[in-house]
Write a structure and sequence with these properties.
Length: 132
């Protein structure tokens, strides 16, 4: 069955491919499914991502580099929630995603989880990491 609902990430500074590549380096079973770039004379900067679909741990996402400037960006009120199988996995992902980004909730026990952390990555995407 084809996945009907996808998280769609819009980047404004030509960072879509860099973000997609970074995310794929962090998760198993990650791959680019489709990548289309802006060409000469198109509205986006030539070579940037016109549309891409990629998968992380079997879940598909979409992204693009918006050719239109917007007065908004990513917000932590919408985040990607990752259930980690091990403490080592959680610590690795937290460190990588927090680098160059911002810590919203430091790693700790918050009552609802033995170990949890929430970060914005260097691209502004928000991630909640939870030890299952």
């Amino acid at each position: 069955m084809t996945q009907k609902i996808h998280t769609f990430l819009m980047f404004q500074n030509g960072e879509a491919e860099e973000a997609m590549t970074f995310y794929m380096s962090l998760f198993d079973d990650a791959k680019v499914i489709h990548l289309e770039r802006f060409g000469p004379g198109e509205p986006g900067a030539e070579g940037t991502v016109k549309h891409a679909t990629f998968a992380l741990a079997g879940q598909e996402y979409m992204c693009l580099d918006s050719p239109t400037p917007h007065d908004f960006d990513f917000t932590p009120s919408m985040s990607l929630f990752v259930g980690c199988d091990t403490e080592e996995e959680l610590d690795r992902l937290y460190a990588a995603l927090a680098e160059g980004g911002g810590e919203l909730m430091p790693l700790g026990s918050y009552g609802f989880s033995t170990k949890f952390g929430w970060v914005n990555d260097r691209f502004g995407v928000s991630w909640q990491l939870n030890l299952a």
